[in-house]
């Protein structure tokens, strides 16, 4: 047993203010780490958007431990996921299965997390531009020449991660060949009371669910070339990873409406037509990571969640991976702080536990999409093992 005196409390930076970042910060604060700062590139009060999220039991348990009850973030009570069969725009049958978890929305969960973060912890509008090192650990560089030193930096800054670009620049996002068009129809129920999936033909997939408001959240997945994407949204997929309503052109509206009218039953097509403000997300792939931890001076920088490796939405693993990774990371840091456990060894064990899960999810996404007829064929996707 290590009988050394516990080290001084580490200075910890969390980069990213969406979901995984605030989750990491709350877990650190709950574990007794006082020197925690969250840096969010988005200005305070900036509008944000996000779709449906499935949370598995391990992630739900982490939220329980933070004192966040499900009544705050569960979008609807039913655990059923309904698969609707369609032929020639007519519903031919439904199959209901129990989803092993709960559904929420980005908006509900972000509100539950952000309202619990102390104001002094989160720094909005602070964009990280680089990372260097001093003798005692990493130094973050910000816009306007600002710098600040830490012992541990947790990059949880999403698909367009600055941390990944700085620490692991060889891994670049690749467009998978299809887009999730999103919106919320301002209709009560609309015949939808559970998460519902509609696939009228290969290459077209519609997911629906009731959300507070009231309304119906929908995501319509359609195959799209990179040139079409640029024409509809003003930039190529790797340049615009999230399409805000102001970027959605009339051509994009017409394309989505035409597909809805061609493939979907009238009730579901009407939900799409009833949605005035729409967004879109290109589905992206990335090579599997070989590491999650980088020594920087005497400290460390790590990548978690989508910053490490965004997985395809059909796996329902994106946020679950991030939550499970940060919960385990906090356990490693707590053992180091309380008992002097070797931090380098603890972080090595942490990445050995989580890398295989991420690799499996990255491989699973293209296989599911292939069965749905979405994007590139899975046998044409190169996977690094």
Question: How would you describe this structure to a colleague?
Answer:
This protein is of the alpha/beta class and 385 residues long. Helix content is 31%, strand content 29%. It contains ten helices and 18 strands. The chain has helices spanning 20-30, 57-65, 106-114, 162-167, 226-233, 250-263, 266-273, 305-308, 318-339, 343-372; strands at 12-15, 36-40, 52-56, 80-87, 90-98, 101-105, 122-124, 128-134, 137-142, 147-149, 152-155, 174-185, 195-201, 204-211, 215-223, 278-285, 293-296, 299-303. The strands form four sheets. A seven-stranded mixed β-sheet has the order 5-4-13-14-15-12-16, with helices on both faces. Strands 7-2-1-11-18-17 form a six-stranded mixed β-sheet. It has a three-stranded antiparallel β-sheet with strand order 8-9-10. A hairpin with a 2-residue loop joins strand 17 and strand 18. Helix 6 (250-263) packs antiparallel against helix 7 (266-273). The protein is globular. The chain starts with 11 loop residues before the first strand and ends in a 13-residue tail after the last helix. The model is unreliable at 378-385 (pLDDT under 50).
Quick structural summary:
With 385 residues, this protein is α/β, with parallel strands linked by helices. 31% of the residues lie in helices and 29% in strands.
